[in-house]
Design goal:
By secondary structure, this protein is an alpha/beta fold. The chain contains 19 helices and 28 strands. It has a seven-stranded parallel β-sheet with strand order 8-9-7-10-11-6-12, sandwiched between helices. Helix 5 (about 115-125) crosses helix 9 and helix 6 runs parallel beside helix 7.
């Protein structure tokens, strides 16, 4: 036999492996191994693929096979555990293996192959090597923290923990102590810490670097340059990096010595990928920990209902922190401000304005949280009823006053605000509702001497601008902060004693059954920004004011006590009676077409093509809540089952049939959807 044969997966929508000859010329340089990255011909181009099997013969006639062109020999083969992780993700989320494995490999390897590697290795060798310094001073742990650290460090095999602690209770300190303890046990051990958003990575990175000055620490997130990502990826693969920090993409990092996984703010929906492979990084982290027989820590002040149910059934171990880590730091007082019967000044109640005035007099900081950027959500003509609707989406265009622009936050379409109504010519267009820019304007008029800082996606679009804004807050150079969700969690502002929450009511009436759970978590997170340091004599007690028109709603009543248990038990009872997650399992088939009729027709035909339903409930196809985005009409088909196994069996039999259909309709399957 002149050569061996290898099975290779490529980044294609085709759900099978490709056989290639491994000719003598290549074999004389490199023995074929599973996990190798190879350059192969594919159609009229060349691709980098992953070897998933080596064999002595092929089911395909040898004359029809093509040769492996080259092996990327500078990269050690990806190990069997990593390939098994990719196989599981591909199987569970119903995607081809190549669409899971290859996108997790840096683009520079796939695009430039050997040349990119040569440059990356040189940069990695030149990178700053940690210089040995004295170990930094570590804060004293309180008993509950110490018990949690000991449980994690002395875990025997796979041990999933829910680290349930109030905001400011010192969860990060537990992560750091646990990492230190486990890395000390083994010279080549690695730890992975994930955060839900890029915005939280720099703060965590600083904490970790300060604590571990002698270790190589790398990050993985989408804002890295391709060169940085490749360099960090290689450091992880070779074990040079012992601590990995990152967002959801980091769960697929090829860390051969992984001994601990931490998922901070595990409840956050950002851990669910919403494009391509629609995976849950939290769930993959748990599966990976089980695969490797290591502890995984899911930290949150408001754990997801899925994790809470696993904790109740004993599948996960509960580690609880009931008090804040800083001595004498207490949880803020939460008050509900009923705005249904009082006038507002630019969206702000008199009670909230007065509380802010008191903080300014004391030299303390205030934070106003409004999860809506721009100046106003919609512009309207009172004469004829015209509204600033997007021509391409089922949404309104948001008014951005600074540039006099109407902007759709879904498709990115922009246009200049007309000076008169396009329908009737009326020159008096009204801004309805409030965005962060309008609140900032109101505050400037009410507190002309205050230093006001707005933090949202518009004000922090430049590289480094977010960190600069955060430094401004930490250095006490801002009196009032106005921010969206990006400022609501994870940040530690020591002089912040007042939080105002503006217009949270919209989530109470969402068709998404998870909306109330998310709102409660968000309220607890943003409330946790206040009172994180020791109360100063003469200062005001920290407080949170929530402006609402529905103060008697059970969700708001539950926030008053800072306790999640009572509210989560009610939510779980509701979910159980309705057969919703975590007591049921779902998959969502979505379709996009130029007309809604075509999208619905495709879904109806898809239902008729199901080979076997396995007891899965198939709902009627319906338009999506956001029916049109960028001129594409969207519809959905929800599948529900009391059995995860039954749902997976049905999808496994059905999706090959769908992939075999020729249609201009674009479709996507999502297992365990976060929104429906």
């Amino acid at each position: 036999m002149s050569c061996l044969f290898v099975q290779v997966v490529l980044d294609t929508p085709l759900d099978f492996c490709f056989d290639y000859r491994y000719p003598a010329g290549v074999a004389s340089v490199q023995t074929p191994q599973v996990g190798q990255l190879v350059v192969v011909p594919f159609g009229r181009r060349t691709e980098v693929g992953l070897v998933v099997d080596v064999k002595e013969d092929s089911d395909v006639e040898e004359s029809r096979l093509r040769d492996v062109i080259a092996v990327l020999s500078d990269i050690p083969p990806l190990n069997a555990e990593w390939i098994a992780l990719c196989r599981f993700a591909a199987g569970y989320y119903q995607r081809p293996l190549g669409e899971v494995a290859l996108p997790s490999i840096p683009k520079k390897i796939r695009a430039n192959g050997q040349k990119a590697l040569e440059r990356a290795w040189k940069m990695l060798d030149k990178a700053d090597v940690p210089v040995s310094v004295e170990n930094p001073v570590k804060p004293q742990l309180h008993p509950a923290q110490q018990q949690a650290v000991e449980a994690i460090v002395h875990s025997d095999g796979f041990s999933p923990y829910v680290l349930y602690g109030v905001t400011g209770s010192g969860k990060t300190e537990i992560y750091l102590h646990a990492i230190e303890g486990l890395l000390r046990q083994k010279a080549d051990a690695q730890a992975l810490v994930m955060v839900p958003e890029i915005n939280l990575t720099p703060q965590l990175e600083k904490s970790v670097r300060d604590r571990f000055p002698n270790e190589r620490i790398v990050t993985l997130h989408s804002r890295l340059t391709e060169a940085e990502r490749l360099r960090n990826w290689l450091a992880i693969l070779t074990g040079r990096a012992r601590i990995i920090l990152g967002t959801r993409m980091a769960v697929l990092a090829p860390a051969p010595g992984l001994c601990l996984i931490v998922v901070d703010e595990e409840h956050d929906p950002s851990y669910k990928q919403q494009e391509g492979l629609r995976y849950s990084a939290r769930d993959l982290a748990v599966w990976r920990a089980r695969q490797l027989g290591i502890p995984v820590v899911l930290g949150s002040a408001t754990p997801s209902l899925e994790s809470w149910q696993h904790m109740l059934t004993g599948h996960y171990t509960r580690l609880e922190l009931k008090e804040r880590a800083v001595r004498d730091a207490v949880l803020p007082l939460i008050r509900l401000v009923d705005i249904s019967r009082q006038p507002l000044n630019g969206g702000l109640s008199g009670e909230l304005l007065q509380a802010m005035r008191q903080r300014l007099e004391k030299g303390e900081q205030s934070l106003l949280f409004l999860n809506r950027r721009g100046y106003a959500p919609v512009m309207m003509c009172e004469a004829c009823g015209w509204v600033s609707a997007c021509d391409r989406c089922s949404a309104y265009m948001v008014y951005h006053k600074a540039h006099r622009l109407l902007r759709c936050h879904h498709c990115g379409c922009e246009r200049i605000l007309p000076r008169t109504c396009p329908d009737c010519g009326n020159a008096d267009l009204q801004a309805l509702g409030h965005g962060t820019q309008r609140i900032e304007e109101t505050l400037a008029g009410s507190f002309p001497d205050a230093r006001i800082l707005r933090i949202d996606a518009d004000s922090t679009s430049r590289k480094g601008s977010l960190q600069q804004a955060l430094d401004t807050i930490h250095h006490g150079q801002a009196d009032i902060i106005v921010g969206t969700q990006m400022i609501a969690k994870g940040h530690d502002f020591r002089n912040l004693t007042l939080v105002g929450v503006i217009n949270p009511d919209t989530a109470l009436f969402s068709q998404d059954y998870r909306a109330s759970e998310r709102l409660f978590s968000l309220l607890m997170q943003v409330a946790g920004r206040a009172g994180r340091s020791t109360h100063k004599p003469g200062g005001n007690a920290s407080e949170v004011l929530i402006q609402t028109r529905y103060p008697v709603h059970p969700l708001y009543q539950a926030t008053l006590s800072h306790r999640y248990e009572h509210y989560v038990s009610e939510l779980l009872a509701e979910r159980k009676s309705a057969g919703l997650p975590p007591f049921g399992y779902q998959a969502l088939l979505t379709a996009e077409a130029r007309s809604i009729d075509k999208a619905l027709a495709f879904l109806s035909e898809a239902v008729e093509s199901i080979p076997d339903r396995y007891g899965v409930m198939v709902n009627e196809p319906i338009p999506m809540a956001m029916m049109r985005i960028a001129n594409m009409e969207r519809a959905q088909l929800l599948l529900e089952s009391a059995s995860r196994l039954a749902l997976q069996r049905m999808l496994k039999a059905w999706l090959p049939v769908l992939r075999g259909k020729k249609s201009a309709v674009r479709w996507q399957i999502e297992v365990d959807p976060m929104t429906i």
